[in-house]
Design goal:
heterodimer; A: alpha+beta; Elongation Factor Tu (Ef-tu), domain 3; Rossmann fold; Ubiquitin-like (UB roll); 8-stranded antiparallel beta sheet; 7 helices; globular; B: Rieske Iron-sulfur Protein; 4-stranded antiparallel beta sheet; binds FE2/S2 (inorganic) cluster; binds fe (ii) ion
């Protein structure tokens, strides 16, 4: 499990772009400076949004030998902030800036059992793991949950490759995923690798802790881009510096504050490190905590938020306003 | 594919088992060891399993080997106290209520075999314990002996060259095992994808001092001529076991009857440390007088003295290589074994997409 966290930017050429479902495209990139992509790797991409370059993370779905090609898959949903649209517009021959593969979600070979759990587009983070586990003859189950069959990317390929190790849960077919049952049936010695929307992650985490399974054996990747509520506009006030900023639904609070030249500290920008923490002084509405940094207790107390991912939603019939202080 | 073997020093295949330490060196106190350019923190869990973690904390890269072992299988970073388990997962982050999901250090596959702790630093999915080189004499009840470790300031390939051609004994080891018959005798070379064998027989010769002593340990008062053999077995990428011995001349040793002789195995496995240094683990095993600890110690110390002569030569050779970057190697017929080793390694490097060697001084 060699992990690489080094961020090396380079140019990549689009060699293919194919629609997999109504809203997911597979994009194959040929980087100028290939590097191996281990299972669980992602790349960061610089995408133009409204004329400025923004950074997005995408899991590497599969890779050619020594990383000479890297395939990613991009979901463009109505809630997307514009990055996905720009990615979908890429055509063979176009070039973009990407990092070499980064592994923040490494697969460890050698556990007694594995469950790989994907919600929707989260399949992109665990597909590579599934192939490695199959090739080493590991005992694994791949659980893939989604709304409807046509919405599930790579379904045929996965059925072919993994046969009865693949368990499908399709809400539209009356077989939604029951997290309590899934976690309840996990054998001791199982490592669970999870990528999916925050509701799913949260449910699995609760069930895992409830069953007193070893917390380090629950592995998850989050790019901090899903929440409990749909994103909406909200207002941030910072009395100490006399600032008032409107955060639009298509941008993060951190981005909006940066654009207003508020000097904020941050590192991961995906809700993991806690460096972008702001103190909440007053709140009209509720906080949509999208980070994995705070505990449930801390989230419930509504005293702080990670502004790189978390948002505010309006109270019934009102406007969403948060008054904060910063470091 | 590049099929010439002109690089003076070679990179090391990543997908291979390398010895990190003797089994007795890994215990409940972390040990810092670099293998193949990767600093490792080695320790043993309470259950006795050896563990190899990357020796750099996820947080600020402080060396975990300076930390303390905790609980059944944990190690705590000595700087800000992150606790990891043997899989390299963060178990506790002292200053916060949650654990950052990306907080891991690499935990490398480990196999304990033949009295060594082997680590695999390449693609973990390929880490098949069956690929650990055969060194069964190390812990086979039919053999006895012991060994040591030498840290040599040279590229590991130079040690392999040294062991694949023993004609150097005549010049480097003249007082112990060297004799003219070595460079005068014929040898044969065989290879397959993972192994190279060099076999040399010297018939009806005088036993050099080292071998005369061994003969007399088994046959007190022995006098006379001997048949001497050296059968060098290389197994990719860096293990060389040498079947050595002498028997009373004309008693059938070349035909397979070694009962009138003494037989040893020089076990060698070399782990690259950096591109210019390596750790050379060796042992001398014998299959006679198994009960004698005195002989075990004498042989270990005797061979240790011989290997010191090699070490001096190898360090000097590496210095000369680096001081003369514009001079190339030329080869002799005696290099056949070493050249096959180089070719097998270069093929493996090419298969890993890693030729030309990053360390070429030429
Ligand atoms: S920048 Fe890391 S949690 Fe926001
Ligand atoms: S460097 Fe290890 S905890 Fe900070
Ligand atoms: Fe020697």
């Amino acid at each position: 499990m060699a992990t690489s966290h080094a961020v090396v930017w380079q140019r990549a050429t689009v060699v293919d772009s194919t629609a997999l479902t109504g809203d997911i495209r597979r994009i194959v990139l040929a980087p100028d400076h290939p590097a191996r992509a281990d299972a669980g790797a992602h790349i960061d991409v610089r995408v133009p949004i409204g004329g400025v370059l923004d950074r997005r993370s995408y899991s590497v779905v599969d890779a050619g030998p020594e990383g000479r090609t890297l395939a990613i898959s991009v979901l463009d949903s109505p809630r997307s902030r514009g990055g996905a649209r720009a990615m979908h517009a890429l055509r063979p021959g176009d070039t973009i800036e990407i990092t070499q593969p980064i592994v923040d979600f490494p697969l460890r070979v050698g556990a007694a059992h594995y469950v790989l759990l994907a919600g929707g587009i989260g399949i992109t983070a665990v597909m590579g793991m599934a192939s490695v586990l199959r090739s080493v003859g590991a005992d694994y189950t791949l659980v893939y949950a989604g709304r409807s069959r046509p919405a599930l990317a790579y379904l045929d390929q996965l059925l072919n490759a993994h046969g009865d190790r693949l368990r499908l849960h399709i809400t539209g077919e009356g077989s939604p995923l029951d997290v309590t049952e899934l976690v309840g049936g996990v054998e001791p010695g199982t490592e669970l690798y999870l990528c999916g929307p925050i509701r799913l992650m949260d449910a699995v985490r609760r069930a895992w802790i409830e069953r007193e399974l070893p917390y380090p054996d629950l592995r998850f990747e989050t790019f901090g881009n899903s929440g409990w509520f749909a994103p909406e506009d909200f207002v941030v006030r910072i009395p100490r510096i006399g600032a008032e900023v409107t955060v639009r639904a298509t941008e993060t609070m951190l981005e909006a504050l940066e654009a207003a030249e508020v000097d904020l500290m941050f590192d991961c920008r995906k809700g993991e490190c806690g460096l972008c923490e702001v103190r909440v002084l007053d709140l009209d509405g509720d906080i949509d905590h999208r980070d994995v940094f705070y505990s449930e207790r801390q989230k419930d107390s509504r005293g702080k938020m990670c502004c790189c991912v978390s948002r505010v939603v309006a109270p019934p019939g009102g406007t969403a306003v948060v008054t904060i202080d910063i470091s | 594919m590049k099929e010439t073997t002109v690089d003076k020093v070679l990179g090391h295949p990543r997908n291979a088992w390398y010895v990190a330490a003797w089994d007795h060196e890994v215990n409940r106190k972390p040990l810092a060891r670099t293998v193949a350019n990767r600093p490792l923190a080695l320790y043993r869990t309470e259950d006795g399993d050896a563990v190899a973690l990357a020796d750099a904390c996820w947080h600020r890269l402080a060396p975990l080997s300076m930390g303390k072992l905790e609980g059944r299988d944990g190690i705590r970073c000595p700087y800000h106290g992150i606790l990891y388990n043997s899989a390299g997962r963060c178990v506790s982050m002292p200053a916060q209520e949650t654990i950052n999901p990306s907080a891991t250090v690499a935990s490398f596959p480990v196999v304990e075999r033949h009295r060594y702790v082997w680590v695999w630093l390449g693609d973990a999915a390929l880490a098949d314990p069956e690929l650990v080189p055969d060194m069964h004499q190390m812990d086979d009840p039919a053999w006895a002996g012991d060994g040591l470790t030498i840290s040599v300031d040279c590229n590991y390939q130079l040690v392999l060259d040294n062991l694949m051609d023993l004609t150097h004994e005549e010049f480097v080891h003249s007082s112990s095992i060297g004799q003219e018959a070595l460079s005068e005798s014929e040898f044969t070379v065989h290879h397959d994808e993972r192994t190279v064998t060099v076999e040399r027989w010297m018939l009806g010769i005088d036993a050099p001092p080292f071998w005369l002593k061994n003969m007399r340990d088994k046959f007190p008062g022995f006098e006379g001529k001997v048949d001497r053999w050296q059968i060098i077995h290389f197994e990719s990428p860096s293990t060389i076991n040498i079947d050595v011995g002498v028997a009373r001349a004309g008693t059938g040793a070349p035909q397979g009857d070694r009962s009138q002789g003494v037989n040893g195995y020089v076990m060698n496995t070399i782990s690259p440390v950096t591109d210019r240094s390596c750790r050379y683990f060796w042992a001398f095993m014998r299959n006679y007088r198994l009960e004698s600890q005195v002989i075990t110690t004498q042989l270990r110390d005797g061979v240790s003295g011989v290997f010191k002569e090699d070490e001096d030569m190898l360090v000097a050779q590496q210095a000369a290589i680096d001081a003369n970057p514009d001079y190339e190697f030329y080869s002799l017929n005696i290099d056949a074994g070493g050249m096959w080793v180089r070719r097998l390694i270069e093929r493996q490097l090419a298969a890993e997409g890693r030729l030309p060697a990053p360390v070429s001084a030429g």
